[in-house]
Amino acid sequence: MGNEYIKIKRAMKRIKLLMMAMLLLLAIGAKGQVVTLNECQAMARDNYPAVGRFSIIEQSKNYTLANANRAYLPQLSLEGKATYQSDVITIPLDMPGLEIPTPDKDQYQIVAQANQIIWDGGKIAANKEMIKAGAEAEKKELETELYTLRERVNGLYFGILLMQEQLKLQEVLEDELQRNYERVSSYIENGIANEADLSSVKIEQLKAKQQRIDMESAQEAYLQMLAILTGAELSSETEFVKPPVEPQSSVVKINRPELDLFVAQEATIDAQTRGLKSGVMPVIGAFAQGGYGKPGLNMLQNEFDAFFLGGVKLSWNIGNLYTLKNSIKTNELKKLSIDTQRDTFIHNLNMQISQQQNEIDKYRKTMEDDEEIIRLQQLIKDAAEAKVENGTMTVSDMLKELTALEMAKQAKLLHEVQHINSIYKLKNTTN
């Protein structure tokens, strides 16, 4: 039954991944197709092999709990034996008319026994709590592993986003350089430029081509890595949507999976402590025994006979009392260790949050001047082109102004992506 369930779950997962991949492929083939950050995060999570452990952990917990519950059922045993003993019980009485039989030295017995727990001091209940707490801790530990996956997807997504935007600007730059090449060619015909000026433009074109190749190579590397994580077919034709800039709250709420893991670990230790305490409690149970043998309960009767007996018994292992106090103290120290880990984690996290908030403010303030810089640089570039036409500026100096304009546009684009990336870094750090 368990194997069939696992097969069904795996088949459903494969179908889900196939459907998502098909939808993505259809979208890729459509004009204006877009891929969002949330979609990539969802696909990466579904494609991550370790996610299957959630189902395994849950099934293992259920099977173990089922076994633990069976401790409430009557425990049955069957035992048989055949013996021969060198001596038997005899009664040293010699009275006229009274014959006391002597048991045979060969004896046979088969016994069936049933034991039923009436009260176990909470041992079974504590064991079930430990099973549940242990499974929950495993799940939370897996969630922390998936957190690092989300961080990797974010880094690749914003890397691709930046490359795509830069390539668009690079295309504009190359078109502008081609117009300049044609313009300088006409200047040569009119005698206001020479072949060296044309060579300068050609050099800038070759540099721009090299930059585009570097960008395309970086983009392809990002795409390949993200495709592996998501299990989807991604290409340079895929358009990645710039995530919206979410409003920032003045109050930062931390909801990291590590905090849930610390809670789950403490819950596991608490369950273990309750198990230690229940282990020193007495156990009360009922038993019934039925058998057939020679002799039966009457040892002086040399023949096969059936027998039965039952009752109530109490067992108490007081030896556990010797170690109980120290074991509880050990668990208390484990919880203190977890508290220290939590405090250290939050301390380091607060420092990281402060740094990321400063980054957000820095990029926001930087972006305020980007448009004005581009506007002014455009005026300088236009004036430089006019001076070249009038013969008062060299083509090389004009190209420097063109490069400066392009650098200003690249800087604006970089700041925009960095600003959004810093916001999502903070979001990822706190959640």
Give the percentage of residues in beta strands.
Answer: 5-15%
Shape: rod-shaped
Radius of gyration: 40 Å
Total domain modules: 1
State the strand order across the main sheet.
Answer: 2-3-5-6
* CATH homologous group name: Outer membrane efflux proteins (OEP)
Count of extended strands: 6
**Chain-averaged pLDDT:** 85
Low-confidence parts: 5-9, 17-32
The biggest sheet, with number of strands, parallel, antiparallel or mixed sense and barrel status, is: 4 strands, antiparallel
CATH topology: Outer membrane efflux proteins (OEP)
Give the helix level as a range of percent. Answer: 55-70%
Task: Indicate the CATH architecture.
Answer: Up-down Bundle
What is the count of helical runs?
A: 8
Determine the N-to-C terminus distance.
38 Å
Helix and strand element order: HEHHEEHHEHEEHH
Task: State the secondary-structure class.
Answer: alpha+beta
CATH class: Mainly Alpha
Summary keywords:
4-stranded antiparallel β-sheet, Outer membrane efflux proteins (OEP), two-stranded parallel ribbon, 6 strands, 431 residues, alpha+beta, 8 helices
SSE layout and pairings?
Elements lengths: L1 H28 L4 E2 L1 H11 L4 H18 L5 E10 L21 E14 L3 H68 L4 H36 L8 E2 L16 H22 L4 E12 L10 E11 L5 H70 L4 H36 L1
Parallel strand pairs: 1-4
Antiparallel strand pairs: 2-3, 3-5, 5-6
Helix pairs in contact: 1-3, 2-4, 3-4, 4-5, 4-6, 4-8, 6-7, 7-8
